[in-house]
Write a structure and sequence with these properties.
Layout (H helix, E strand, L loop, with lengths): L1 H9 L6 E4 L3 E3 L4 H9 L4 H7 L6 H11 L2 H10 L4 H5 L3 H16 L20 H12 L34 E7 L3 H21 L1 H7 E8 L2
Parallel strand pairs: 3-4
Antiparallel strand pairs: 1-2
Helix pairs in contact: 1-2, 2-4, 3-4, 4-7, 5-7, 5-8, 9-10
Length: 222
Amino acid sequence: MRELIAELRRHPWPGPRPVAIPLEWDFQFTGPMLKILEVGPPAQDALIESLRDPEVKAQAIILLGGVGDERAVGPIIDAMASGRNLRSSPRAEQLNLSANIALTNITAAEVIWHHGGGVVETKPPADSKKRWERWWRKNKETFTVKGSSTDRRYSNYPNYGVYKQSQAETPGALVFCVRLSSGMMGLTCTRLAIAFTGFLIYHTGHCSLSHTMKKIIVAMMV
């Protein structure tokens, strides 16, 4: 594991990016990251230790979301940026976005993203760490992955690593493609598509929507 962790430093990670609404992520995992995900739960302790290394902290966080359990929740929250660090650290947003994804993947908690309904935010809220700290204080003594009965098959679930769920797909489901071009028209179309998506999610509910919509793809073109 130490060799794989060292490899993380030599392979910069661009971070996750949203590619669909309801949320689907292109994690853009590097080769070493994929190898660690293949190791699975035995990689957890080494990754928790790696949270102290600023060079690989974001990678360790997102990987813990794929292989970790309740023992990783506290260390991930502690590693998040807050207060002055949000403004002074260029990596703060990527760090907290990775943490939000990882913690949601482990806990399936509605701390950042709801199971269904509303317009989805793809950037980490400024109070992300405080939100998770409140949730963890309330659930620390009782939460376990094995003891959780929350259904992970819902829209906006990150869905990767050992927690990956198979998603039912309906033939002929709607596919919305929104291509962005430079200028106000592309931005306006994107906002309309996102608003329309939020309307559908809100009024149909996450279960209905997840079975009738295959993807709403947001393709970004410079």
